[in-house]
Amino acid sequence: MDDRGYRHGQGSPPTEARMSSLHALAEMLRQLYTARQAKAADILLERVPRSALEQLLGESSAFLGARVRYAVEDSLRHRKPSAEDSEHATLRALAAVLNAWLHDGRRLAIRAVLRELSVGELVQLAHLPDIHDEVASMTSDFTGGIAPSTDAQP
């Protein structure tokens, strides 16, 4: 078992998988606000499905922090209805920021976010068509050495 409480190689319950992407989202938002990149955080919040943001608010205040909680609540207050509520929408939103961070040389921030994702989500992230090859290869550091294959889709 790993530190998230499930076994590698076995499917985790959907709520656990969902929670880890929410932890990664919260970590990414913390990183963005710490780096004074509020505009990038706003764009990220616009790309994440409403349901994921609502679920994120269900987390404890200590986990989110006051700044992240306020930003998520504000984003939901001003959110227009959207059909973009797919399973991979949150991962695609994270991928856009990860790619930008790679360009900026923020590899430690990338690793802090990748550390929060489940093995299944890391594999899905590595297979997104718009993820940078170096970010995709970094995911293998958190999957027990399982390198992402570009030939087969999960």
**Overall 3D shape:** globular
Radius of gyration over C-alpha positions, nearest whole angstrom: 15 Å
Uncertain segments of ≥5 residues (pLDDT<50)?
1-18, 150-154
Number of helices: 9
For the termini, the CA-CA separation is 22 Å
Number of strands: 0
* Main sheet properties: none
Helix content: 55-70%
Overall pLDDT level: 79
Strand content: under 5%
What is the helix/strand order?
A: HHHHHHHHH
Number of domains as seen in the coordinates? 1
Based on helices, strands and strand pairing, what is the structural class? mainly alpha
Describe the structure.
It is a single chain. The protein has helices spanning 14-34, 38-47, 50-57, 61-64, 66-77, 89-104, 107-114, 119-126, 133-138. Helix 1 (14-34) packs parallel to helix 6 and helix 2 (38-47) runs antiparallel to helix 6 (89-104). Mean pLDDT is 79; it is low at 1-18 and 150-154. The protein has one domain (14-142). It contains nine helices and no strands. The chain has 154 residues and is mainly α. It is globular and about 40 Å long.
List keywords for this structure.
154 residues; mainly alpha; disordered N terminus
